[in-house]
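WARN no homologs supplied; continuing
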Amino acid sequence: MKPKTLKILLVFGVIAALAIGVGMWVFRLAPTPPIFDESVTLVEASEQASSDGHVVLAVVTADFCPICQSYKRNALVDSRLGAWVEANAETVYLEWERDADTIEALGVTKWPATLVLDANREIIAMEYGSMNGDELMAFLDAARIAPPAPSGDDVPTGGESADADFPMGGD
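OK structure emitted
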């Protein structure tokens, strides 16, 4: 083999090795953030939320999703999130393959997804995609103060006017 050909193969070999190494580092599986217990189901988190007067913070993720892995390594380990959860929420960690039925029942079609639900498992707020710590905290704070969805006797009918907090109809 000619020395020039050998040099070219060596350069391509080094580039390939670096690309594989970077890919393995970027796409490595992130650990489950400490605020989540993977054994807790949505039903269990909802029951505890009802008992404590909390909401449920649900995160939908997938092991094969690099954006999910980045989200788990960054915003979902932010210390502000831990304090927010302690004061306001029960948590549930939903893995795409393992919890497909629950995820489908919630109507989630993409990942990562971050949901705030009431104790009856009704969605208060949902956001698709990764957020940084500041974005996540703003989302959670907005969800915490959002009015509950109207239900039962709260829903205006006939000649009653809708309260400004509960707009009726669609655009």
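The CA atoms of residues 36 and 83 lie 13 Å apart.
OK
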